[in-house]
Amino acid sequence: MSGEDKEINDGRRRFLLSGALVVSFSMLPGVSAMAQEVIADEGAAVHIGKATQALAGSLKTNPFLDSWIKIDRAGKVTVYTGKVELGTGVRTALLQIAAEELDMAPSLITFLTADTGASPDEGLTAGSHTIADSGSALLNASAQVRGLLVDAAARHYGVPAATLSARDAIIKAPDGRSMTYGEAVGLVDLHRVASAVSPLKSPATFDMIGTSLPRVDIPRKVTGGVAYVQDMSMPGMVHARAVMPPVYEARLLQTNLSAILKMPGVIKVVRNGSLLAVVAKGEWQAVQAQRALAAGSQWSEGRALPDPATVHRDLKVISTEHIEIANTHAVTGPAVKTLGAKYTRRYMMHGSIGPSCAVGLYQDGAMTIWTHSQGVYPLRDGLAEMLSMPKEKIRCIHVEGSGCYGHNGADDVAAHAALVAREMEGQPVRVQWMREQEHTWDHYTPAMVTEVSASLDANGSIVDWNYALWSSSHNERIVNAGRLIPAQLLEHPFVPAPSVPMVQPEGGGDRNAIPLYALPNVHVMNNFSPTMPLHSSAMRSLGAHMNVFTIETFMDELAAAAGADPVAFRLRHLQDPRARDVIRLAAEKFGWPRAARKRNHGVGFAFAKYKNLMAYVALAVEISVVPETGQVLLEHAEVAVDSGQIVNPDGIRNQIEGGVIQSASWTLYEELQFDTTMIRSFDWSSYPILRFSAVPRDINVHLIDRPGAPFLGAAEASMGPTAGALGNALFDATGRRLRDMPLGGESLRRQIDA
Asked: Is the torsion defined by CA of 124, 130, 133, 138 positive or negative?
């Protein structure tokens, strides 16, 4: 709460009035009389369009309460979110938030996620924004709906609202009278703009927020139920498989269409320019026909791929946009020691466990797509443009997919499903990519180069920091139909929108490139390439993985040059008290400072605040190295996290642990294999990921709860710090400062042997 904010407490409820904006409650009804009196004292009203900017989270863009919560006269309560479940457990956490402020058991709520025919438009589920944006919206919308229902009941009974209680959708008066939410909703209109002030419960009274409610998505997954879009089955459903070009920009010259139509179960071959797909009655029939169709198709040469040996050098050449994102100056003492280093990261893929899948149905002039897209509304808009259909005739319904981690093939396979379904009117069409398509047509995370130099004064403090990064786009999400791969293959192809850098403070390749440390002189440059040698887009944490790795391993080098302990050195350069808290907690739980316990073992430490906006994460790790193979095992990690008000502790721990494991895989082993002819990482044997035998053995996550504080996204927050801690631990174990990812495997073995 800022110094201009005002909190009003009313027993079990509290109201937050932002000093930045005064709202007219003649335009925004539904706020208690006490809150209206306080606001009336504050001054004049403002226009409703401006008023929405004072609303919490996604209420800014979806301000009507009944966009989030609907209650019918029978008392059925349905809660909506525009965000989706990607395996992070957010569906459970969002349900908890709504249940808390509605004063209802979660089991009594029907909770629905993103659907362009029903839910609010919250754009993408990405960037650890779900709890911060949708959670904040649901917290306030639920509190306001409860308040409106209680106030309506109070008016009906002629008693003060403060004398009524609400529990499990029943409002009770002290004299024993009661009414259900369904009866109360007949006395009030929920189709109203939310207020900037909400009758929020005191965190001290929470009985749902802060508990580890079991995840609602798990039972189906562990019992073999229909859990993913890949599992969907519908009456009359047929199966389709696409044939993709062997390389970028290759065009289809000819194919063996007539032979394929004679194969068992084949219903249709769809061709439009270079878009090619086969439809069959059974899935295996579709797979067999796809293989035969691919084998009998001839393609033009297409575009050559970059030379992997020179990709980092070339990236510096093609990065034509030079964006200064930090430039601060202060007078300091003279520098006595200057260090510098260069770091690289190669292309990596999402590696989704389940190949991308979608189901499409075209009927009565309308298209319905069941998809695991991260953004059903942007997808709908892209499909509408591609199909030349009105948006209102297309409905995209989210169904969870097996594996995501960012912008994989979910949107593209949905476009395949839409194009094929249009040719199969009245029949549901299931399209699933093959494994080699999922790998070779992925939107990879870009290769990156970072360079940093910094100077120390005689006291061992940093006096200047100069940082530069080079990267292509980390965000090729749908902004037009041309961003959909199938739309680029049509006889009249769509052209992708130009690549543009994402802006700070969130950033793209430059995410977390500005250090959180208090440094007197800082200069940071983002060198962006609008040209993409390989298809690239968003993967968990975007540039934060590389930038935090660079910053945190370089901080260790500076600490060594200053003769300081790495943790003490970080604390010396941090003013943010919450950052200091997580660092101290991780160090305490690990027993820092301490040396590695065995030969070929090492310890390391790292810290970051994700995007400098979201959750704080610090961790200390111990690793072991097998010199003969270059295998690195993360033996032990102690992680401290501050994500503000905790909704589901077990959910946060799961996400932090999962982030540590995935980041270990990226940092140590993952690297896309390709040459100038084609992508070579077309299966799991040609793309190394962390195996079960190397999964970290002992990860302990320690949470700092801050009741009443804003929610801070945590899902991606451990990616960068894990990379930094691993790099520092490898130096401790091997005596070699490794700056080129991946750090483990064959490259590490060669360096140890050198």
From this structure: positive
Residue tagged 């403060």 (tokens): 162
Question: For residue 693, which amino acid is it?
Answer: S
Given a cut of 60, whether residue 509 has pLDDT beyond it is: yes
Closest CA to 740 of 488, 471, 528, 451: 451
CB 141 within 8 A of CB 59: yes
Which residues, listed in sequence order, are joined to residue 454 by a DSSP beta bridge? 339, 465
- Judge if the upstream peptide bond of residue 742 is cis by omega within 30 degrees of 0: yes
pTM over 0.90: yes
Task: State pLDDT tens for residues 258-311.
Answer: 999 999 999 999 999 999 999 999 999 999 999 999 999 999 999 999 999 999
Is the distance from CB of 389 to CB of 104 less than 8 angstroms?
no
For residue 299 the two structure tokens come to 């393609």
- What are the tokens at 647? 């909704």
Cα distance between residue 533 and residue 479, in whole Å: 20
The strand pair at 266-272 and 13-17 is best described as unpaired
Residue 714: CB atoms within 10 Å:
28
For 588-623, the pLDDT digits (tens) are 999 999 998 899 999 999 999 999 999 999 999 999
Q: Is 624 helix (H, G, I), strand (E, B) or coil?
A: strand
Phi-psi group of 403: left, alpha or beta (phi > 0 → left; psi -120 to 50 → alpha; rest → beta): left
Cα distances (Å, whole numbers) of residue 397 to 68, 286, 321, 455? 16, 24, 38, 53
Half-sphere exposure (Cβ direction) of 672: Cα atoms closer than 13 Å: 29
* 3-class secondary structure per residue, 340-402: EEEEEECCECCCCCCCCEEEEEEECCEEEEEECCCCHHHHHHHHHHHHCCCHHHEEEEECCCC
Count CB atoms within 10 A of the CB of residue 243: 27
- Among 22, 13, 70, which Cα is nearest to 45's? 22
Instruction: Delineate the domains of the chain, giving CATH numbers in brackets.
Output: 6-205 (3.30.365.10), 234-301+350-440 (3.30.365.10), 448-474+509-753 (3.30.365.10)
DSSP assignment string, 117-186: TTS-------TT-IIIIIIHHHHHHHHHHHHHHHHHHHHHHTS-GGG-EEETTEEE-TTS-EEEHHHHGG
Token code pair at residue 734 = 């091997």
Strand pairing class (699-704; 631-642): parallel
User: CA 480 to CA 489: how far, in whole Å?
Assistant: 15
Q: How many CA atoms lie within 13 A of 508 on its CB side?
A: 26
**Which residue is associated with the tokens 């966009």?**
67
Contacts 24+ apart (CB under 8 A), 464-467: 464/332, 464/335, 464/519, 464/520, 464/521, 464/522, 464/523, 465/515, 465/519, 465/521, 465/522, 465/523, 466/523, 467/326, 467/513, 467/515, 467/522, 467/523, 467/524, 467/525, 467/550, 467/551
d(CA 430, CA 233): 8
How many Cβ atoms from other residues are within 10 Å of residue 12's Cβ? Answer: 13
Identity of residue 572: R
Find the helix or strand (DSSP H, E) in which 283 lies.
helix 283-295
The four Cα atoms 575, 581, 587, 591 give a dihedral, to 10 degrees, of 130
For 463-499, give one letter per residue: b (16+ CB within 10 A) or e: bbbbbbbbbbbbbbbbebbbbbbbbbbbeebbebeeb
The model's pLDDT over 113-152, given as tens digits with 9 standing for 90+, comes to 999 999 999 999 999 999 999 999 999 999 999 999 999 9
